[in-house]
Design a protein that fits this description.
The chain has 1 helix and 29 strands. It is mostly beta strands and 354 residues long. The longest helix is centred in the N-terminal third of the chain and has 34 residues, at 33-66.
Length: 354
C-alpha cells in the first residue's frame, strides 16, 4: 500500500472562548464533490441515528419498567442507568475515573455522573451540532467535539466554552493536555500542541475518519470509513487494510502491539505490524461500532440492538446479555470492574462489580 504525503499548512491558535456560528468558516473545500460526499455520508449517518433514537427510547422505556426492581436484567451484569435524554443518541463516553464520567451526543447533549447511577445534563453555550467524541487529560481538562466543527472545553465545573475549528469533527484522543488529536468526516487529522493547531493530514475528503488512538506522536491510528486504518509513524500516514467500507469504526489498544478496530460485522486486531485480522463475531449480523478494554485480556465491543461482546484477548468473543435493545456506539471504563456503554435513545449501560 502507498503512503499519504503531508501538506504544508500554517498553524492556527486554538482559543478557548466561544465562537459564533455566524462567523464560523466553512469546512475545507466544502464545494468539492469529495467534500460534499463526505457531508452527505455524515448527514445520512446522523439521520439514521436520529430515526433509531425514538424507537430505541420507546423500547427501552418498557425494559426499564420490567427491571425497575433491580435496575437491570436479572440475568445481566449490565444495569440500565437513566440519562434523562431519551430523544438523543449518545455517541461518546469518557471519564477521568469512577466518580467522574461524561457521555455526549445529539443536539449538543452532554451528561455527567459522579458514578452514583444518576446523570445530570450540562449546558453547552448554544444550539450546536451533535457531539461525537469526548476525551480529557484529567477531571479539570475535558474536551468534546461536534460534527459542525466545534471543540468544547470544560474545567470540570459543569460549564463549557467552545471554539469552531471548521471541520466535521468526529473523535478526539490525546497524550496530555498539551498534545492531542482531532479527526473529521472530511478525512482531516488535526494535531493540537500547546494550544496551537496544525493539520498533518489532508485526505481531500476521500474518506471520513471516525476514530483515533495511539501510544505516542510516532505511533497513531485513525479509522476510515473506506475500510482502511491509517497509521502515522511520525513522518507519513500509511493506509492499512482494516474494517468494512462505509462503517467508520473506532480504535483502541492496550499497547503498540495490541490494537483493535470496531468497524462493521467483525472486530479487527493488529499486532502493530501493518496487517489487521478479522476476529469471529458471535453475532455476525450485528454492526459493531465501539471498542475499549481495561487491558489486553479484558476487551469490550458494542453494537446494534443492545449488543455487548467481551474478549479475553484470545481472538474469540462472547455476547453478554444487557436487557437493552438500543443501538450502542461507544465503550469506556475506569477499570475492569467499572465499564460504561452508551447509545441511541440516551441509552447508558453500566457494568460494575465490587
Amino acid at each position: 500500500m502507498g503512503t499519504t504525503k503531508l501538506r504544508a499548512v500554517l498553524p492556527v491558535a486554538f482559543a478557548t472562548a466561544c465562537s459564533s456560528f455566524d462567523t464560523a468558516a466553512e469546512p475545507r473545500d466544502s464545494g468539492s464533490v469529495a467534500a460534499r460526499d463526505a457531508v452527505a455520508r455524515r448527514d445520512a449517518h446522523d439521520a439514521a441515528r436520529e430515526e433509531d433514537a425514538t424507537r430505541d427510547a420507546a423500547r427501552d422505556a418498557g425494559v426499564k419498567k420490567d427491571v425497575a426492581s433491580d435496575g437491570g436484567s436479572a440475568a445481566s451484569a449490565w444495569k440500565i442507568e437513566v440519562s434523562g435524554v431519551f430523544a438523543e443518541a449518545l455517541n461518546g463516553v469518557w471519564g477521568s475515573g469512577p466518580a467522574d464520567v461524561y457521555a455526549v451526543g445529539g443536539m449538543g447533549t452532554i451528561v455527567h455522573s459522579t458514578g452514583n447511577g444518576k446523570w445530570t445534563v450540562e449546558a453547552t453555550p448554544f444550539a450546536i451540532g451533535d457531539f461525537y467524541g469526548v476525551w480529557g487529560s484529567g477531571p479539570l481538562d475535558v474536551y468534546a467535539v461536534t460534527t459542525v466543527g466545534d471543540v468544547c472545553h470544560s474545567a470540570g465545573q459543569g460549564t463549557w466554552t467552545c471554539n469552531t475549528v471548521a471541520q466535521d469533527l468526529t473523535a478526539i484522543w490525546g497524550l496530555s493536555p498539551a498534545d492531542y488529536y482531532l479527526v473529521s468526516d472530511l478525512g482531516v487529522v488535526l494535531h493540537v500542541t500547546n494550544g496551537v493547531t496544525a493539520m498533518p493530514l489532508d485526505s481531500q475528503g476521500a474518506y471520513g475518519l471516525y476514530g483515533v488512538w495511539g501510544t505516542s506522536d510516532q505511533n497513531l491510528y485513525a479509522a476510515a470509513d473506506d475500510g482502511d486504518v491509517l497509521h502515522w509513524n511520525g513522518a507519513l500516514w500509511t493506509p492499512e487494510s482494516g474494517g468494512q467500507a462505509g462503517t467508520g469504526g473506532t480504535i483502541w489498544g492496550s499497547g503498540a502491539g495490541d490494537v483493535y478496530e470496531a468497524g462493521g460485522n467483525a472486530l479487527y486486531h493488529s499486532t502493530g505490524a501493518g496487517t489487521w485480522t478479522a476476529e469471529p463475531n458471535p453475532a455476525p449480523t450485528i454492526t459493531l461500532t465501539g471498542v475499549w478494554g481495561s487491558s489486553a485480556s479484558d476487551v469490550y465491543a458494542a453494537g446494534d440492538h443492545g449488543t455487548i461482546e467481551h474478549s479475553t484477548g484470545d481472538g474469540s468473543w462472547t455476547v453478554e446479555p444487557t436487557g437493552s435493545s438500543a443501538d450502542l456506539y461507544a465503550v469506556w471504563g475506569s477499570g475492569p470492574s467499572d465499564v460504561y456503554v452508551v447509545g441511541n435513545g440516551g441509552a447508558i449501560l453500566h457494568r460494575s462489580t465490587p
